[in-house]
Design a protein that fits this description.
Layout: H1 12-33, E1 64-69, H2 72-81, H3 84-93, E2 105-110, E3 136-140, E4 145-150, E5 153-159, E6 172-175, E7 179-185, E8 192-200, E9 205-209, E10 222-224, H4 226-235, E11 240-241, E12 248-250, E13 254-258, H5 283-300, E14 320-321
Parallel strand pairs: 3-13, 7-14, 9-10
Antiparallel strand pairs: 1-2, 3-4, 4-5, 6-13, 7-8, 8-9, 11-12
């Protein structure tokens, strides 16, 4: 005889608990199916837009010291301390050739060394007064340096040796005339002048390669390192002549020579040790350059606009001139 267990209905409390559990599970499933709000999609109504801070790069500050090479030990120490690239920079800053650095020579050395001299330029990286001129050569006799600008932007600078006290290089607004890879000096026929670029035709004055002794020493021309002379030779424009070669149709690249070297004082680059801005352009020099630019602009107004981009290519020859 089978005895059936009587059926018991679930209690009201049990049913209530099960209902709560089922409802909770259902709500969680709905939340998991909804996309999460990112910061981009859920910006508060009154939020303030975050502007990234501008990164300001501090200007490069270079200080200088004087190194006196009094003994052979000090000279050897200098030559062994620096790399060839760094020594090349130091020689350029002192306006000398490597073979001019000898026992007893004092030289200026920067505390931060790069492998080129661009960061040591006494000329500003941007010169607005030259912005309308495609190419400009500046030659500062005070600091014995040249600078090349394209529309007011400095692209190259380097050391020079201009005319000595008795035969100074004439200041003024000049223009590139003719050039030759090889010239012979009228002072001494043994003096060969590579990469000559004339900017004063009748006077025979121009830029060219020749040894730099660390002071103005030429017979009016402007001496350069070989690589700088070759660069200007390739970069600057010559004059444009008529078919007979007797008339200038268009002048070449402007060469602006300015300033005066102080023969009674210490070389200006040596003064960088006490005043690192000593070689920067001064107001008087800037005013002179403004006058040159004004004269250049007056000259440009006289040209036919259709001929402004022409460049003459002359056969290269050997022309007797000054060094």
């Amino acid at each position: 005889m089978n005895i059936k267990t009587p059926f018991r209905a679930p209690s009201l409390l049990f049913v209530l608990l099960m209902s709560i559990i089922l409802i909770s599970i259902s709500c969680e499933d709905k939340k998991s199916n909804q996309p999460e709000n990112s910061d981009e999609n859920a910006a508060p109504k009154d939020s303030i837009k975050q502007v990234p801070e501008e990164i300001v790069v501090p200007p490069l500050v270079i200080n200088y010291k004087i190194d006196s090479l009094k003994t052979s030990v000090e000279l050897d120490s200098f030559k062994n301390k620096y790399s060839e690239a760094h020594k090349k920079v130091i020689y350029a800053l002192n306006r000398v050739e490597a073979n001019k650095v000898r026992i007893g020579k004092s030289i200026v050395i920067p505390d931060t060394l790069f492998e080129d001299i661009f960061n040591y330029s006494p000329f500003p990286k941007k010169l607005d007064i030259l912005s309308a001129i495609p190419k400009t050569v500046l030659i500062s006799q005070r600091v014995q340096g040249f600078a090349l600008y394209e529309n007011g932007n400095l692209i190259k600078w380097g050391p020079v040796s201009s005319g000595k006290n008795s035969t100074p290089t004439p200041n003024g607004l000049h223009y590139g005339n003719y050039k030759a890879k090889r010239k012979i000096s009228t002072v001494d026929e043994a003096w060969i002048l590579p990469y000559y670029f004339n900017f004063m035709n009748f006077e025979g004055v121009g830029v060219h390669q020749y040894d730099l002794p660390g002071y103005p020493a030429s017979h009016a021309c402007v001496r350069l390192y070989m690589e700088d002379a070759q660069y200007i030779y390739d970069w600057a424009k010559q004059w444009e002549l008529n078919s007979s070669g007797q008339k200038i149709l268009k002048k070449g690249t402007p060469f602006m020579v300015f300033g005066a070297y102080d023969y009674k004082s210490e070389a200006p680059w040596m003064q960088l040790a006490t005043d690192r801005s000593n070689n920067d352009l001064i107001d008087e020099e800037l005013n002179t350059l403004k006058e040159y630019v004004s004269k250049y602009n007056e000259y440009i107004k006289t040209l036919n606009p259709n001929n402004l981009d022409k460049e003459l290519s002359l056969d290269e020859g050997t022309v007797v001139t000054y060094n």
